[in-house]
Write a structure and sequence with these properties.
The chain is an alpha+beta fold. Helices cover about 20% and strands about 35% of the residues. The longest helix is centred in the middle third of the chain and has 23 residues.
Length: about 160
């Protein structure tokens, strides 16, 4: 059954500022990942400022969507594998270790994009996620992301 809430709703408020998926980034993309136990799903409708050239979506935006959606999928799957509800302590957090994007066809503007991500491999520290982007049921982009688990406050402590 599809999760009623996106995994991003469970990210701690003080760090939910990512441009791609942070609920507290007013200018961000606000990517939302819904995990059903097998597939992470997300949708996004590009705006005019996301144009690469007339009629087609900028590839960098697509990479950003895949990045945050794949990390969200990895986090949701890690909670699921641990038999825990999202947002329970200790917090599960991942960052991108590698992102490999293959652009199969130009992605058209003016349609809702559907992202589907699956877990390819899950280890203690590394989760490999595959993700496809569809425009009107046509796969336009395929990617693989390596999500690396990190202590939840590691980056904040280094900045202090």
């Amino acid at each position: 059954m599809m999760s009623q809430q996106p995994i991003q709703n469970f990210y701690k408020d003080d760090v939910a500022i990512c441009y791609g998926c942070g609920k507290h980034n007013a200018d961000g993309l606000h990517i939302k990942t819904f995990w059903d136990g097998e597939i992470g799903r997300s949708t996004f409708t590009p705006r005019p400022e996301h144009t690469a050239f007339p009629g087609f979506v900028y590839g960098g935006l697509i990479a950003s969507l895949i990045d945050c959606h794949s990390i969200g999928t990895a986090i949701a799957a890690a909670y699921d594998a641990a038999g825990r509800a999202p947002g329970t302590d200790p917090e599960i957090t991942c960052v991108t270790g590698n992102l490999n994007v293959s652009y199969l066809k130009p992605t058209p503007m003016g349609v809702e994009l559907v992202l589907e991500a699956r877990i390819k491999e899950m280890g203690e520290r590394k989760i490999v996620v595959t993700c496809s982007v569809y425009a009107q049921d046509v796969e336009t982009v395929r990617a693989e992301t390596v999500a690396v688990r990190v202590p939840s406050r590691m980056f904040k402590k280094e900045a202090d």
